[in-house]
Amino acid sequence: MKKLKIAGAVFGAIVLLLVAGIAAVWAPDRSAEDLGTRWATPPSEFVLVDGMKVHLRDEGPRDDPNPIVLLHGTSSSLHTWDGWAQALQAKHRVIRVDLPGFGLTGPTPDGNYQMPVYSHFVASLMDTLQVQHAVLAGNSLGGYVAWKTAVDYPDRVSKLILVDAAGYATTATSVPIGFKLAQIPMLSGLMANILPRKVIESSLRNVYGDPSKITTELIDRYYELALRTGNRKSLAARFSQNKAGEFEAQILQIKQPTLVIWGGLDRLIPPENAEKFRRDIANSQVVMFDNLGHVGHEEDPAATVAAAKAFLD
Questions:
Q1: Mean pLDDT over all residues of the chain?
Q2: CATH number for the domain harbouring residue 60
Q3: Is 308 within the bounds of a domain?
Q4: Which residues pair with 68 in a beta bridge?
Q5: Are 298 and 83 in contact, with CB atoms under 8 Å apart?
Q6: What's the structural domain count of the chain?
Q7: Whole domain around residue 129: which residue ranges?
């Protein structure tokens, strides 16, 4: 009888620990309206594009004939461009947007996250905002979307700025843990309701050249916007629907003047990819920042936007 009581107490303790552990990482979806009170403050606005209520910020002179459209990377949001937008908006119209599947925009209506869907989205966004042609700047996935739009809609894109852009079939030397989990089918379903904050922090440390620059507010932003209803399922879907290097042969078709910015400490998309873009895009140049990681525009906006301004001017 005594042994049974001890076993029961041990089992109860284990159950309590499991419940406490799950409670500590339990993170159900949150609505865009709820998250918007913190992350969609002015000058944020929402417009209807391709059946989605799209979160964007449109700043600077509206009579600019050649606006700049800023496109973020995987699991990021328009806020990643805060520094660039502040530096550019005195002279340029600057449009930044939460891409489908991310930020406050959230999932596509049909769950399609293939690259032609993203390039069509950018063209539709420009139509909605009555922008005939623009400079497209993008980081990582956003860079991929930028150059794919330049290929699919060449008359709409005047110049390209690619910041550690995706598109080539390449091998990462280190992948953020959040991306790894999203690509494991059994775990991606579990992650729809569980998301340890430490996973976000670890992923950010992975893509920064200098992790000491990561702040509590930065972790808050990535963590909370990951919880937007449907975003975690969208991330898993995007990874499953896209094949590495699927459209890389099209990079040779790019004719627009192109600036390639890269972080020398990028472990997700290695720096040698900058040279691949320079080789395959005839009218291109590379600026390398040896001490920056995969998101150099966010890690050091002043230095990287200075290179962008020189290119634009």
A1: 91
A2: 3.40.50.1820
A3: yes
A4: 94, 135
A5: yes
A6: 1
A7: 32-312
What residues does 65 pair with on adjacent strands? Answer: none
Helices and strands, counts by H and E, the chain: 13, 8
What b-and-e string marks burial along 190-219, b requiring 16 or more CB atoms within 10 Å of the CB? ebbebbbbebbbebbbbbbbeeeebeeebb
Token pair recorded at residue 103: 């930020």
Tell whether 12 is covered by a domain. no
Kindly report, residue by residue over 181-229, the tens digit of the pLDDT. 877 776 656 666 789 999 999 999 999 999 999 999 999 999 999 999 9
CA angle (13, 15, 20) in 5-degree steps: 95
Predicted TM-score of the model (pTM): 0.90
Per-position DSSP letters for 127-151, written without gaps between them: HHTT-S-EEEEEETHHHHHHHHHHH
In a domain, 126, yes or no: yes
d(CA 73, CA 77): 7
In a domain, 15, yes or no: no
Count of positions (residues) in the chain: 313
Q: What local confidence, expressed as pLDDT, does residue 14 receive?
A: 35
Query: Considering only 40-44, 148-152, 189-193, which range has the smallest mean pLDDT?
Result: 189-193
Residue 259 has pLDDT above 70, yes or no: yes
Cα distances from 87 to residues 69, 82, 90, 195, 308, in angstroms, run 14, 9, 7, 34, 10
